Amino acid sequence: MVLESVRASPHIVGESTARELLALTVVGLLLLASLGFALGLDVGLSLWWIALALGIAVAAGFGSAGLVPAVGSLWLVGLWWFALPPLVGSLTGRWAESTRYNHPRMLGYGYESARAELLGGIEYGFKYGLLFAVVIGLVGYAVGMISSRLSMRTNESR
Fold this sequence. Notes:
The chain is an all-alpha fold. It has a domain at 44-150. It has helices at 2-5, 10-13, 16-38, 47-62, 67-92, 114-156. α3 (16-38) runs parallel beside α5 and α4 (47-62) runs parallel beside α6 (114-156). The termini are far apart.
């Protein structure tokens, strides 16, 4: 595969099977959460998503899935976090009824239309979703990689 030939380090691109498992897991989680949100369930658009993202990054580091795939997966999670609520609100026409369909933000202001809210959510997802992915991804991947190495050393010393 092309990615395997350009690897500078096994932790940049990762192992093929681990990368595929990471992608399938993240896409599956986002599909499940999207369906739950669309059905009106509280899927935890909160700090639980940060904990989940950190867990994904740690698992990616432990399984040698690669730092780039881990950060990319977390960026999808971040983009989803910002863009899905206004997308569902726009598609269902219930946008004005609740702040449930607004994207997460620090300040209390909102947009005047569902379309503007969706575009704002996508913009925030690209900006802050990438920042979120890089910070959480680097920290979590490092923790997972170190844990994996310590686990291997412990098993070798036995």
